[in-house]
């Protein structure tokens, strides 16, 4: 998840400064995009340990980028052992 976020920041898919401003609107703007990306990564690590019954601020509700990162992290490889002529995997 962290690796995907770093690559998304490097490729310009995610603007780390804008994402941090969305998560923490009252905080000071980071000096560099690299610092913002590092802060986002630490934010993700912190969120992974958050108990499910704790209150989550509405600014921390998932954005499409965060949902994509989580989905890629949780994705399991699928192995097909045989395919029928109808293209159904067995």
Number of strands: 0
- Give helix % range: 40-55%
Determine the structural class based on helices, strands and strand pairing: mainly alpha
Oligomer: single chain
Q: What is the radius of gyration computed over CA atoms, rounded to a whole number of angstroms?
A: 18 Å
Order of helices and strands: HHHH
Low-confidence stretches: none
Which term fits the overall shape?
Answer: elongated
The span between the termini is 30 Å
Mean pLDDT: 78
Report on this structure.
By secondary structure, this protein is mostly helical. The chain has a domain at 1-18 and 30-50 and 62-75. The protein is built from 4 helices and no strands. The chain has helices at residues 2-11, 16-23, 33-48, 64-74. The radius of gyration is 18 Å and the shape is elongated. The model has no long low-confidence stretch (mean pLDDT 78).
Quick recap:
The protein has four helices and no strands. By secondary structure, it is an all-alpha fold.
Task: Provide the fold topology.
Elements: H1 2-11, H2 16-23, H3 33-48, H4 64-74
Key terms:
90 residues; 0% strand; mainly alpha; elongated
